[in-house]
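Database export, one record per block. Field names are fixed; values are copied verbatim from the stored entry.
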Amino acid sequence: MKNNEYILGISAFYHNSAACIINNGEIIAAAQEERFTRVKHDRGFPYNAINYCLEEANISTDDISLVAFYDQHWLKFDRLMKTYLAYAPDGISSFYRAIPKWIKDKLWTGPTIKRILNYKDKIIYPEHHESHAASAFFPSPYETAAIITIDGVGEWATSTWGVGTHNNIKIKQELNFPHSLGLLYTAFTTYTGFRANSGEYKVMGLAPYGKPRFKDKILNNLMDLREDGSFRLDMKYFNYCQGLTMTSDAFHNLFGGPPRKPESKLTQRDMDLARSVQEVVEDVMLRMARHVKKETGEKYLCLAGGVALNCVANGKILREGIFDDIWIQPAAGDAGGALGAALYAWYQIMNKPRKLNGKRDFQKGSYLGPSYSGYEIEHWLNEKNIPYQKKDPEGIPSLAAEQLAEGKVVGWFNGRMEFGPRALGARSILGDPRSPETQSVLNLKIKYRESFRPFAPSCLAEDVSKYFELDRESPYMLLVAPVQQSRRIKQANEQKNLFGIDLLNVPRSDIPAVTHVDYSARVQTVKEEDHPEYYKLIKEFKKRTGYGVIVNTSFNVRGEPIVCTYKDAYQCFMRTEMDVLFLENLVMFKEDQPDLKDDINWREEFVLD
């Protein structure tokens, strides 16, 4: 047996390609391809992510014991062909668009991996939802737990439940295509004018502005929902099996008109549609959770799949007390499938023992991406003649807290990049939660995105119950919790009559920048052992203001991935109205900076050896 058994996990070709490396079961590195190519949701082969993981592990492809790909592409092709045949000739346009991609890339996954990596050994292919389940259970802190996975579709499965025990997962039941909770949510995402596979979180953020007046129409017409959370969709209302759109004319007639045109003005109807489908998703997930609890008797629940990023539904499952606790994979979507496939290979295929880590999970705070030294960054800044101030690293958290307390918007680039869609204090834009203006400033002047979008708080783990109705950690920003009643501001009579987007500008608590219109917040708790510098920053902010909580949003602008390198960070800083940028212990103030030339490409190129 080798002293070091390296397994490379890969997800590619569908959504959010990614790679990861584990060594003897320990997660060494993981990253999404989009961070390197700067193409949001990049689905191409993850050359750059693989190269990074090999570099981080300090190995070559010759050192890899096993490669694990996150799904079984031949079963996906089987589902695709059978679906087209079932709907023929209606799906001919979609067929002609999809098949060339399969013939060129997707059917040749194994040979492609071997050719690119010059790899001659075994490749294993867990099923898509096995990879999700493995990513949910194996990094969790539980010896045994129930597992639920929910997404759009894998090979055939769209939702599964099962049990994880020690080093083994077993899927007990699944719901199959075309009956999909993820695709139902995506249908409403496109109908309300947002992009499929990227705009679902906008629907979740829009929902609190609306009323659930279409909920019964969804439940009575679109789906037959059962007590155990399983359901069947009436496919006459959908077009994704055979067409190039998600919804059909019958859907449009049922809900009163054609889909909203992207970027057009949001109406109260759009908000009500968002609220309605959100409540349906919550109902389905609660029924699933209760059923799985009844069937398994397990104390704990692990979640993965793209729908597990619905942090509002996650928070409701927790507050219902169905399980003692839940753990959600931070990279719950397809990117996390790379990690799940690698862990599945180590535990399930190689039958390696799994040792618990006390109450801590094995995800390392999800800080699994690249980091850069102050020396490397300083060399580049000098080369580009960029003005900066070099500070003692010990004083950086205090200086950043001082800037926040003065109302400045801070770009914060520190340590290893996060794996998953959430910025967790390594690649973040930060603000003062006490200011009613922070949300609009960040949305309109920094992120260049829709004004209704809420912002999340990062809170000292030990202080979380002072601000939110939450009695446990939420390190990955995947739980929504209500703001404490004692912090809420009583609404004036004239404000009580407001509805829809007019609710946006009404301060609702003493931390208005992170309090959504329904008094909720998507909470991240921060512990010193996970990210010492970020923890110290919030601690210093508390010393100055009395508040152990700050605004945290991802370091990017709308339509771009979260920044990866210091070059990406500087470009984003210069193209927005951020006030100050911290690159490790190097500080740049906006007023000191020269104009940024539009023709400069700051991106760092990564080439696979």
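Remark 1: Confidence is low (pLDDT under 50) at residues 602-609.
Remark 2: The CA atoms of residues 156 and 177 lie 5 Å apart.
End of record.
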